[in-house]
Amino acid sequence: MSNYSVAKRYAEALFAVAQEQNIVNQVNQELQEIAQVIKENRDFLALLTNPKFSSEKKKEMVSELFKEANPILLNTLKLLVDKKRMNELKHIAEAFKALAADAQGTAEATVYSTRELTEEEKKDISTSFAKLVDKETLNITNVIEPSVIGGVRVQIGNIIFDNTVASKLESLRRTLVVNN
């Protein structure tokens, strides 16, 4: 089973419990923060995956460091330690975030542009493209990429809408090469 499939199963289980207790937003926020902490502190992840330390010692460290976290999230972290899956936390957090967004009728979108988009532009893009993927709104992350030359490229999951000058120029180049 691929790592993403494993991560998705853990995320779905955590999501089901969080949804049952009506704490999806709280768990999502805490999970994203914990994933960020572990991402920024590679030594801590190395410690949690080091076979020299017992699972009990690792769970004690997790309990102490994340004692303010929601109990179901803390129990999930301890389970990940037991199952030697702490290195999957980043993917679990991503999958959980997608599940939470989907449940709220939103989707994560990355918009590539040559400059920082204004809030009004983000709102317009969200309104326009959300309809195309049957969502109410999009949570937009703007990535500055000068190579697009102009226009925008919107990525929602594995769907890409490319309306950039660079892609139009490439399409024109291919047409000219084929016709010559």
Automatic annotation (TrEMBL):
Subcellular location(s) per record: Cell membrane; Membrane
This protein's record includes keyword Ion transport: yes
InterPro entries: ATP_synth_OSCP/delta_N_sf (IPR026015), ATPase_OSCP/d_CS (IPR020781), ATPase_OSCP/dsu (IPR000711)
Keyword Nucleus: no
Molecular-function annotations in GO: proton-transporting ATP synthase activity, rotational mechanism
UniProt KW keywords: ATP synthesis, Cell membrane, CF(1), Hydrogen ion transport, Ion transport, Membrane, Transport
Cellular compartments per GO CC: plasma membrane; proton-transporting ATP synthase complex
Membrane topology listed for this record: Peripheral membrane protein
Entries under SUPFAM superfamilies matching the protein: N-terminal domain of the delta subunit of the F1F0-ATP synthase
Known function: F(1)F(0) ATP synthase produces ATP from ADP in the presence of a proton or sodium gradient. F-type ATPases consist of two structural domains, F(1) containing the extramembraneous catalytic core and F(0) containing the membrane proton channel, linked together by a central stalk and a peripheral stalk. During catalysis, ATP synthesis in the catalytic domain of F(1) is coupled via a rotary mechanism of the central stalk subunits to proton translocation. This protein is part of the stalk that links CF(0) to CF(1). It either transmits conformational changes from CF(0) to CF(1) or is implicated in proton conduction.
Recorded family membership: Belongs to the ATPase delta chain family.
Protein name: ATP synthase subunit delta
UniProt source species: Ureibacillus thermophilus
